[in-house]
Amino acid sequence: MSEIARKVWEGSINCIVSYRGTECYLRVFRNSYFPLYFQLLSSYFNDEVSFLYTEDDVPVAWNKPIGVLYDLMQGTSPWRLSCGTKADEYPEYILPLTDVESYWCNQMKEACYIHNGNSKQMMSLSRDDSLTFWHSVVTHNQTTWFRMFAKLHLQFKRIPIRLYLNDSKLDKVVQWHGQTLGEAMCELIPELFDMKRWRNNDQVSVVLHGVEPPLQCPVDDLYRECVYVDGFLHLCVIVKPNLSDAESKAEGES
């Protein structure tokens, strides 16, 4: 296991979660899911937490890794969040909270299918191995997770990617079998990237685990070092406000 993979796994975000005037200071792992912290929050606030939303009242999806949510929503530091409970109306724009283990397992099966053309490796794990694999997600045990991940014998012919755009509702699964991250972006989002200008495009950035990897990086290397717990490489494409548009808007409002 490389030093990069270790640091990626240990990446965390400081949060301040509030509920009815009480605040809980919480440090969460990027490579994890918010529902895995709901029991702790429920005990702290003495109420059953069922969802979170930002200080701008934007619901936070539970089914994406925390680091992806933070990067996509461009969270503050610390990230200020509020709790919703079962007594509150559940947000209509996020997936209803279900069994997190089943959801994670289905994501891993999909990642296996993209790699190998089938999900046999994930489906053929013994019951004990499956429980150990999931428990490594719950306890955030990197050594055990990578040991179980290696049992899937992935071929790395196609890399499973989840691609997001911060200024749209784009959230799609793609598979990539080429070389560099820049080439992948040029093919997958040609309206934002092209081979002539992607190297110097300061209006668009690709964020992975809170950093902007060089677009010259081979995608398979990024995957091996930065894979998320669901077997996907989650890439957030951040489109920055156009400076000239912002200036024109400011002039119009003055």
TrEMBL record:
Conjugated with ATG12. The keyword NADP does not apply. InterPro entries: Atg5 (IPR007239), ATG5_HBR (IPR048940), Atg5_HR (IPR042526), ATG5_UblA (IPR048939), Atg5_UblA_dom_sf (IPR042527), ATG5_UblB (IPR048318). Belongs to the ATG5 family. PANTHER family: AUTOPHAGY PROTEIN 5. Residues 9-82 form the Autophagy protein ATG5 UblA domain. The lineage of its organism: Eukaryota, Fungi, Dikarya, Ascomycota, Saccharomycotina. Residues 99-153 form the Autophagy protein ATG5 alpha-helical bundle region domain. Its main location: membrane. This is Autophagy protein 5. Involved in cytoplasm to vacuole transport (Cvt) and autophagic vesicle formation. Keywords: Autophagy, Isopeptide bond, Membrane, Transport, Ubl conjugation. It is found in: Preautophagosomal structure membrane. Residues 158-237 form the Autophagy protein ATG5 UblB domain. The keyword Metal-binding does not apply. GO terms for molecular function: Atg8-family ligase activity. GO terms for cellular component: Atg12-Atg5-Atg16 complex; autophagosome; mitochondria-associated endoplasmic reticulum membrane contact site; phagophore; phagophore assembly site membrane. It is a peripheral membrane protein. GO terms for biological process: autophagy of mitochondrion; cellular response to nitrogen starvation; piecemeal microautophagy of the nucleus.
